[in-house]
Specification:
This protein has 200 residues and is α+β, with helices and mostly antiparallel strands. The protein has seven helices and seven strands; from the N terminus they run αβββαβααβαββαα. It binds zinc ion.
């Protein structure tokens, strides 16, 4: 992907995530694959609602940043997904309130509405691990083929062919979590209906 265009779309995506309350203050990090060798990722410790295209940082698949600015603390987690999923074109990590609340009480279900089944499928949850560690990056990379992954007491990661798809999956995941918080304990769609939707 053209770097100038990628910078613009990445900054737009960060602002949309922030405006939709999917992540707050400096929380979360977002990236897009430029080619086989490089990704573009958000800088460390900056508010996601106020990032400009020129703030984004090019990092090699080996983890080496070009330039002096410090890339996201979770760069290793993003690289782990790209390295293990050749179809991954973008990765979004946020700290959505309802998703985090549910990881502390149980799990996020995605079988409450047809969109949950169609857009997300089964979403694995990894246990709590210190942010920015190789331990967390490896645990997430093990689920690199999933559309979304939940991080206990921390947040969520979505993977997409592009930033729009990764954004849509994050928005849908938090919608499902919010719905679950509203209805409390309830039944999901019947198994036969879930299978039917999966086959579509
Ligand atoms: Zn985080």
């Amino acid at each position: 992907m053209n770097e100038a265009y990628a910078r613009m779309v990445l900054a737009d995506t960060c602002r949309m995530l922030y405006d939709r309350n999917l992540t707050v203050s400096a929380g979360g990090n977002m990236s897009v694959r430029l080619d086989d060798e490089y990704i573009l990722i958000t800088p460390s410790g900056r508010n996601k609602g106020a990032l400009a295209p020129e703030d984004m940082i090019v990092v090699s698949m080996d983890g080496e940043a070009l330039g002096d600015a410090k890339p996201s603390i979770e760069t290793g987690m993003h690289l782990g997904i790209y390295g293990n999923n050749p179809d991954a074109g973008a990765v979004v990590h946020c700290h959505p309130l309802n998703c985090i609340a549910l990881t502390m009480k149980g799990r996020v279900r995605t079988d409450l509405t047809p969109e949950g089944v169609l857009l997300l499928g089964d979403v694995p949850t990894v246990g709590y691990m210190t942010p920015g560690t190789k331990e967390l990056a490896d645990a997430v990379a093990a689920h690199a083929a999933s559309k979304a992954i939940l991080l206990t007491r921390h947040g969520a990661v979505t993977v997409g062919r592009d930033l729009q798809q990764a954004f849509d999956r994050m928005e849908e995941l938090e919608f499902q979590a919010r719905l679950q918080m509203l209805v409390g304990r309830c039944r999901g769609l019947p198994k036969a209906e879930v299978e039917k939707l999966r086959g579509m």
